[in-house]
Amino acid sequence: MSSNGITSEGLTALSQVIKCNHLQHIDLSDCESFPKSLVDVMCGDSLHTLCLHHNKLGVDGMASLSVGLEKCKQLVKLDISRNNIGTRGLVILEEGLQHCTNLQELDFSDNNITSYGIAHISAIMNYYKYLRHLNIKFNRIGVDGAAVLVSGWPYKSMLTLDLLGCFGEPHDSALRNGSPCCSSCDHLLELYNNDCVTILYIPTLVSPNYCDIDKH
């Protein structure tokens, strides 16, 4: 039901249907007016996939979602990209995320998150034994934030880590050329070269467009 222009009144009515029917997959991305108080109503014990991409949920929406996630023990995919949650919203969401131990795919991309927020998430990553895909592209975490993230938990099952658009110069040049300019760059290159992650996306110098460096 994504990209459908559902109003807040429609979503209110829909939430009651969702609550009563124990749905496993919900996609309410790109809704024009998403009531932040309804986010937790969308969550339930049977939910496997929740996509809330581009709904302007912000910090208030994350407070509601954090409460809802406490019920989502079977959740395997969560997409909250492009919701402008910021570092504060990510910190608020941390408590709810701790209950989602079966997560396999997590998308935080394009959310105005800083390295401080990533430090909070890395602290709970050890709960995610089955995490396969982590997307944090286009957040302002910097190379130091990325280094904190990859130090936070063992990548035993990780397949994809997307860091596109997270760095600036001189780190972009260093990572592209394989010549670390600091200890954080060195840490990321070590991760890449040792196949700890099957694919590590790093921005190149091509501006304003970015290319992906894939390692299989």
Short description:
It is built from seven helices and seven strands; from the N terminus they run H-E-E-H-E-H-E-H-E-H-E-H-H-E.
According to DSSP, the number of beta strands is 7
How many helix segments? 7
Radius of gyration over C-alpha positions, nearest whole angstrom: 18 Å
Helix content: 25-40%
Weakly predicted, low-confidence segments: 204-216
Which range does the strand content fall in? 5-15%
Distance between the amino and carboxyl termini: 34 Å
Q: Major sheet, described briefly?
A: 7 strands, parallel
Q: How would you write the strand order of the largest sheet?
A: 1-2-3-4-5-6-7
Q: Which structural class should the secondary elements be placed in?
A: alpha/beta
Q: Mean pLDDT score, rounded?
A: 76
Q: Give the count of structural domains.
A: 2
* General shape: elongated
The sequence of SSEs as H and E is: HEEHEHEHEHEHHE
